[in-house]
Design goal:
The protein is an alpha+beta fold. It has two helices and six strands; from the N terminus they run E-E-E-H-E-H-E-E. The longest helix is centred in the middle third of the chain and has 12 residues, at 43-54. It is globular and about 40 Å long.
Length: 100
């Protein structure tokens, strides 16, 4: 099962979205985005919480770039912890985060 969720503004324009897929007890969260003009207003938190409510009592996993400090801070504030990292090249490194 794949869940795709979005937030729209008053003009019915998408300002945020996320998708998630469950496999073997883990929910993989990906493609979380919030339009820059709408960030820091709780939309990212709302989208993550919607995933967690739709797939209750699961392990959640996502990844982001180490350069995405705001994303890491958001995920940590929601209880996610870094459990792995992977260097893609000299300039790009991903951190993998989970919430159990």
């Amino acid at each position: 099962m794949v869940l795709y969720s979005q937030i729209v503004n008053d003009e019915n324009t998408i300002i945020g979205s996320v998708r998630a897929k469950e496999a073997k007890g883990t929910v993989y969260i990906g493609k979380l985005m919030v339009h820059p003009n709408y960030r820091h207003n709780g939309h990212g938190t709302r989208l993550i919480k919607e995933i967690e409510e739709y797939f209750p009592d699961k392990r959640y996993e996502l990844f982001t770039s180490t350069r995405s400090k705001d994303n890491i801070r958001l995920y940590q504030s929601l209880g996610y912890k870094i459990f792995d990292s992977k260097a893609i090249n000299d300039e790009l490194k991903f951190v993998y985060m989970e919430k159990v």
